[in-house]
Amino acid sequence: KLYSEALRGQFHFSPQRGWTNDPNGMCFYQGQYHLFFQHNPYGRGWGNMTWGHAVSKDMIHWKEIGDALHPDGYGPMFSGTAVVDSNNTSGFGKPGTPAMVMFFTGAKAWCQGLAWTTDGMYFQKMDHAAVPRVRTDNRDPKVFWYAPGNHWVMLFWVEQEGGQHSMQFLRSDNLKDWTKTSIVRGGVKDDRYLHECPDFFELPVDGNPANTRWVLSAANSVYAIGSFDGKTFRPDAERLVGQVGRGYYAAQTFSNEPTGRRIEIGWWQTATDKGDMAFNQSMTIPMELKLITTPEGIRMVRIPVKELETLRRRTIRSGAISLSEKSDDPLGETQAELLEFRMVATPGKSSAIHIDIRGLEVLYDAAAGELSCDGIKAKIPLQQGNLQLTVYADRTGLEIFANNGLYYMPVNKNISGTKSSISVTGGKCSFKQLDVFELKAAWE
Ligand code: FRU
C-alpha cells in the first residue's frame, strides 16, 4: 500500500518516490493549493532537480500529480515561486482565466526562468530566461505583486564580493522584463544570514491592518523586520530567530491564499534515508505566520493552521488537571501513534514537566527556564507564569510550538514506540489545559 512505509510521515507531505528538499511555487490557484517541490524522481539522494507537484483543498491532504518542470538546456530546475497574474499583465492568461506564472532557477546557466499554466496541469516555459544571470550561483526567485506601486517585485539570492550573502531586488510591470532596484546585504561566507531561498511579505502587527511591517527571511529562517517602498527594504530589526529546533530549511509561503493568511511550509530534514523507503525527506505541517509585539520588540510567531484539526480521530484526554510527583499518569495506558498535544501549564518554581512522546522526552525545566528534546535546548521563559505548548508527533519526529508560536522547535527523530506519558518532578504543576488527541493519517 502506498504511503505505508515504516518511516513515512503520515500527515507530512513527502513524494511517493525519490528525494525532496525545498517546497517551491506554493500558490492557491483555481480552487486548490499547489505545492511544487525540489524532486529527484530517480533516486533517494539530491540530484536531477525537477519540480514535483501536489495539490490539496486544505494543505493537509495532498495528492501528488506528477512532475511539472523538468531539467532543460538552462540546467536542473532549482527553487522558486508561483504567482497568479490576475490582471493578465503578462498576457499569458486567457479571458476569464488568469495564468499561474512560475519562476525557477536554471542551475547551469544560472538565470531565473519563467513557466506558466492556465489549467494547473500543463506547463509551458518561456523560451528565454526571464532574468539573465546576475552573478554566478544567483538563485531562488521570490515574486509578488506590490499593490501600492502597481508592479511586480522579484528578489533572489546572490553572492557578492567577499562571499557576502545578498538579496537582489528587481521590479517588472509584465513579469517578463525586469529592472534591478536594490540589494540587501546579509552575512559573510559561513555566516548564513540571508543565504538562499528568500521569502518576503507584509504582515499586520497584532492583527492591526493599519500597522504593518515587512518580513525578509532566508533559508535558515533567520529573519529581518522592516519597511518597504516597492524598491528598497529598510530593516528595523535584523537577525531575529524564531526557529530553535533542528532540520527546518528553505520555507516558503503560499501566494494568493484565499483567506488572506500568510501560511508557511518548510523542508523538514527527516532521517528517512534508511531501510527500503521509496522516498526521502518531507515537508513540515503548514503554519500561519503573524507579527506580535513582545517586550523585546516585534516578533514573528508560527501557529499550526486550523485545518489540522480535521486530522483529530479521538480525544485521549482534555481539560485542566493538577499533577505532583505522586499523581497517576494522566495518559494512562494510552497507545497511539499520531498525536497532538495542547497544554497551558503553570509549573512550580523548581518543578519539571516530562512529556514522554512514544519514547522521546520533551522536558521543561522551570528553574532553568529551558525546554529540551533529543539534545536540542532552548531558553523559553514562562509568560505570566505559564508555558504554552503545542506538539505534533508523526513517525519522523516532533514539531513543538512554545508560547503560542514564538518558538518553533522541530525535532527530526524517527519514533516508533506507541506509549506516551506525562509526569512532573520537583514539585507540582497545574495545567489550565491538557488536551491530547490521536490523529488520523492524511493519506487517503
Ligand atoms: C536550498 C537550495 C536552493 C536551491 C535548491 C536546489 O536547499 O540549495 O538554494 O535552489 O536547494 O535543490
From TrEMBL:
GO terms for cellular component: cytoplasm. GO terms for molecular function: sucrose alpha-glucosidase activity. Keywords: Glycosidase, Hydrolase, Signal. One of its GO terms (biological process) is sucrose catabolic process. Residues 12-293 form the Glycosyl hydrolase family 32 N-terminal domain. Belongs to the glycosyl hydrolase 32 family. This is Glycosidase. It comes from Flavihumibacter petaseus NBRC 106054. The chain holds residues 115 to 558 of 558 of the full protein.
